[in-house]
Design goal:
heterodimer; A: mainly beta; 6-stranded mixed β-sheet; 2 helices; globular; B: mainly beta; 26-stranded antiparallel β-barrel; about 0% helix
Chain lengths: ~260, ~675
């Protein structure tokens, strides 16, 4: 619970004033990169880091590998992982001091070898506050170091997702029973599911369903939640069975869905 | 752990674009905070050493941002001082004019705990044109506003003195079909809001007009105006209100009173009652006025709306006598009839149909039947199609128009192909347009618009303008370094057949951040546009537009030296308590000619429009229609737009109201489209 509280405090969702007063206050843009390049090319890009505190802040930069857990959390690894493309990456410098309210344009580049296979290079640019801040809770002062990871997806050549849809099943999300599809990616790049789906439940109530757009990494299988909504209720309770129809899309591919969830 | 991932995903749903911590992929990007003791708990393994570009010797690219002071003390207060130099030359029909205007513009805002938020806008200028409304000489504006002053018993007050717009009660501001305009005056305005929806407004002063080239100027007109009104909600469903507006001996033009031209005097009263319950709204309005010894004029109209699920229906009936005025402003008059609108909206579908029937009360005006239909289907994630049909049958004949378009999100960006055909009693117009908003790196934007248009029949200078015109427009810009931003657009049109005059216009704006508090803004524009006649089919309740647009040959240069300082704002952001987190809201108010909700290259921003945050804090849009609230408290906010400076017939849907949730370090972009009624 403490861990969750600190996460919220550092990343700004439910800040207590005292926590914010000495926090790691950085606005980073864009939130992620989805880039395309070819083997043998050098790709250059810029990330903007705005110091939103009034005091000068020192930030540390480095790259990291990452994995996406089955519980939808991200694990960053500083150590070089097998198959990592981080050796292709060069960043501007290891640390920068940014004055209060200043904005830094931080550069990085990826040199893709000429013999690199079609696929996807994934890594994270990590931005950390150099000095610990004080997160003050109820009777507890906790030094924390803020850290933000900006994920870079770099498609190389003809790398693309190839998703297969399985299911159906019903999963519990935030205490609600949600129609869910199992999606497998046998392609060479990550994919995200989207589409327009409608359906009716056992009471005859009509719903729109929105597929969750979590990334599905190559050679991984994920649950894709079909979150229901109605014209008047964003969190309706479905009475099963429910029939869901429509089109699922990813990349340049699409498939029709006509499925009963029970 | 699963709960945490879902929690983060929920956070992502709350937020707009731009802020890392609140992007749609936040669950994949926000690392858990690392306690110093835990930072070494990562899996052991060989350390990896990053490579550095040029050995880490690249020069740093850091801006000093928005003038925020390092002084965190006190509630939010800010100061912006502009020194403006401008020159403009224009030519028409063998004569030319050269205008220079120099001046200062100061804007200050400060928050107080006991007296609400205060702002002071003041300008002083010299120069201007020897012709037209921007007369030579000195002038300027000065306005002191106070918003949200709290009183016991749940009362709050807004007060203003100086150059301002006269106040209206809330029920007068939300008229869906008959716009009751506020009037620019030099005087006083006050608004009090209390419990049970009680609202009292009053104001008055000397009427006038805003002008000036780059520095705001207020020019008074002879005469006086005054208004007072109140509204009250006796129950959760009912609101009733009334307002009285009077104008005395107002000269409707700048300059001396011309002998023989009567000055305008009028007295008008409004009674209104509204009932709202579970998606249904019914409002009855009765207006009674007289002016310049003419016979008494009476108007009444009833507007109803009913929302059920995805369907919204609006209907109304009206009768307004000729010569009806609201203060010294004309409103729609000499009309009786009714209208009906049906709107359906889902994630995938949007459909809107409507019919208006308008008859002249006096028999001297035009009788019109107007039918409109608009539909759009988002076929898939990347493809959408839509179309619009308008038909108007009036005493002089039948006018109609068709529009069809395809939207496509492609690898290069977002595009629209659009075909239009219009036939009016004046002539016909067929156009094919390709718009593309190109994908660009962060901080950059680029959009293009290409069209070919065939115009036949519309008469200019006694001759039909049978022409085929090719036009290209490019809009783009961005933050090239942290200190230098450039934005501009170029439009070029040439008659490849026929006699239409060529049109070329360009403008470029540059923003250069000299230091933490100083920046230079420069804009150069050059427009050479021939006279033309727009062919449109529009509702008879829409304010008319000029039938012939005169030619423009004009160029100008504006240079602004800006000093900006904000203190305490980080710890007391706009709308928040001391110590609250802050984010940023920015956006653009633009004239959405094709109703697609996006700013296309051929579309213009709406300058000098007031954008209000939470009804308390206001900024004006710049020359490109952009606005910015750099430090806003986290949480739910409402943006509204004061439409008074929008060119007719452009208007805002629901006061341009947009709601958003700002989260700490989040940057929320809000684009507000002004549209012409169809």
């Amino acid at each position: 619970m403490l861990r969750v509280s600190i996460l919220l405090a550092v990343f700004g969702a439910a800040l207590s004033p005292s926590a914010y007063a000495q926090e790691f206050a950085a606005l980073v843009s864009p939130p992620r990169f989805e880039l395309v390049t070819q083997p043998g090319k050098i790709l250059r890009s810029v990330i903007e880091v705005s110091n939103r505190s009034t005091a000068t802040a020192r930030y540390l930069f480095h790259t990291a590998d990452w994995t996406f857990s089955s519980d939808f959390s991200v694990n960053f690894q500083d150590e070089l992982q097998p198959g990592s493309c981080r050796p292709w990456v060069a960043i501007e410098r290891p640390e920068v001091t940014v004055p209060g309210a200043g904005t830094l344009r931080y550069r990085f580049e990826v040199t893709v070898p000429a013999d690199a296979p079609a696929g996807e290079c994934r890594f994270a640019l990590m931005i950390e506050g150099a000095e610990p801040s004080i997160a003050r809770g109820k009777g507890l002062d906790m030094p924390v170091t803020g850290r933000i990871g900006v994920i870079v997806y770099l498609t190389i050549g003809t790398g693309a997702p190839d998703l297969q849809v399985f299911g159906p099943k019903i999963a519990t999300l935030n205490g609600q029973q949600i129609p869910t599809l199992i999606v497998n990616n046998s392609g060479t790049a990550h994919g995200r599911m989207s589409g327009f789906l409608t359906g009716k439940d056992a009471k005859g109530i009509s719903y729109d369903f929105t597929p969750s757009d979590f990334p599905i990494l190559p050679r991984e299988q994920r649950d894709v939640f079909l979150t229901p909504s109605t014209a008047t209720d964003d969190h309706p309770t479905i009475t099963y069975p429910v029939t869901v129809k429509g089109t699922l899309e990813w990349g340049k591919q699409r498939t029709e869905l006509n499925q009963i969830f029970r | 752990m699963k709960r945490r991932g879902i929690l983060a995903a929920q956070l992502a749903l709350l937020c707009g674009a731009g802020g890392l911590a609140f992007s749609s992929a936040v669950y994949a990007q926000v690392a858990p905070p690392v306690l110093p003791s835990q930072a070494r708990d990562l899996p052991a393994g060989p350390a990896y050493h990053d490579r550095y570009i040029s050995g880490g010797s690249l020069p740093l690219d850091i801006s000093h941002a928005d003038g925020t002071s390092s002084d965190p003390q006190g509630l939010a207060h800010s100061l912006e001082l502009d020194g403006v130099l401008s020159a403009r030359s224009s030519h028409d029909a063998g004569s030319g004019a050269h205008v220079m205007e120099n001046g200062f513009f100061a804007k200050a805002q400060w928050e107080t705990a006991p007296y609400g938020a205060w702002s002071l806008d003041a300008s002083a200028r010299t120069g201007g044109s020897e012709r037209g409304p921007s007369g030579q000489g000195q002038g300027g504006v000065i306005t002191l506003r106070q918003r949200g002053m709290p009183f016991d018993g749940d009362w709050q007050a807004d007060n203003a003195i100086g150059d301002l717009n006269s106040p209206d009660i809330g029920l007068a501001r939300i008229q869906p079909r008959f716009y009751l305009p506020t009037a620019p005056v030099q005087g006083l305005a006050t608004e009090w809001r209390g419990p049970t929806g009680l609202q009292v407004v009053a104001g008055g002063g000397v009427p006038g007009l805003y002008d000036g080239i780059a520095v705001p100027n207020f020019r008074t007109l002879p005469g006086s105006t005054a208004t007072a009104g109140a509204q009250w909600s006796p129950s959760s469903q009912w609101s009733v209100g009334g307002q009285f507006v009077e104008a005395r001996d107002v000269n409707l033009r700048i300059g001396p009173v011309i002998e023989g031209n009567s000055l305008m005097s009028s007295s008008t009263g409004l009674l209104t009652a509204a009932w709202t319950d579970r998606g249904a709204h019914l409002q009855l309005n009765l207006i009674d006025g007289n002016g310049n010894a003419k016979s008494n004029a009476v108007g009444t109209w009833v507007d109803a709306s009913f929302a059920r699920g995805r369907v919204l229906q609006n209907a109304g009936i009206f009768r307004i006598d000729p010569n009806m005025t609201w203060g010294n402003q004309m409103i729609s008059n000499d009309a009786q009839g009714g209208y009906y609108r049906l709107n359906y909206q889902s994630r995938q579908w949007l459909a809107d149909i409507g019919v208006d029937e308008v008859r002249s009360v006096s028999g001297l005006g035009t009788n019109t039947t107007f039918v409109t239909g608009d539909a759009r289907d988002q076929l898939s994630r990347d493809w959408g199609v839509g179309g619009v049909v308008n038909a108007s049958h009036a005493d002089g004949g039948t006018n109609w128009s068709l529009e069809g378009y395809v939207d496509h999100a492609n690898a290069a960006g977002t595009g629209r192909a659009q075909a239009d055909f219009t036939r009016t009693v004046a002539g016909a117009d067929a156009a094919l347009t390709l718009n593309e908003a190109w994908s660009t790196p962060v901080g950059m934007r680029l959009s293009t618009s290409t069209s070919v248009e065939r115009i036949s029949g519309a008469v200019i200078s006694g001759l039909p303008q049978d022409s085929t015109v090719l036009s290209i427009a490019v809009f783009g810009g961005g933050q090239f370094t942290t200190a230098l931003g450039v934005e501009g657009n170029v439009r070029w049109a040439k008659a490849v057949q026929g006699r239409a005059a060529p049109a070329v216009s360009a403008n470029v704006s540059l923003t250069w951040q000299l230091s933490k508090s100083w920046e230079v803004l420069a804009t150069y524009y050059d427009s050479r546009i021939g006279s033309w006649t727009p062919l449109t089919v529009q509702s008879p309740l829409t304010p008319p537009i000029a039938t012939v647009v005169p030619s423009i040959q004009e160029r100008g240069l504006f240079v602004t030296f800006r000093y900006r300082r904000a203190s305490g704002s980080h710890f007391a952001p706009l709308g928040g308590a001391a110590g609250a987190g802050s984010g940023e809201i920015s956006g653009v108010v633009f004239l959405d000619a094709n109703h697609n909700g996006h700013l296309d290259a051929s579309e213009l921003g709406a300058p000098n429009v007031t954008v209000v945050l939470d009804g308390r804090f206001s900024v004006q849009t710049d020359a490109g229609g952009r606005f910015n609230f750099p430090v806003v408290a986290t949480g739910h906010h409402v943006i509204t737009v004061v439409p008074d400076n929008l060119p007719l017939p452009w208007g805002l849907i629901n006061e341009g109201r947009a709601e958003c949730v700002v989260s700490t370090r989040d940057r929320t972009e809000i684009d507000i489209a002004a549209q012409r009624p169809r």
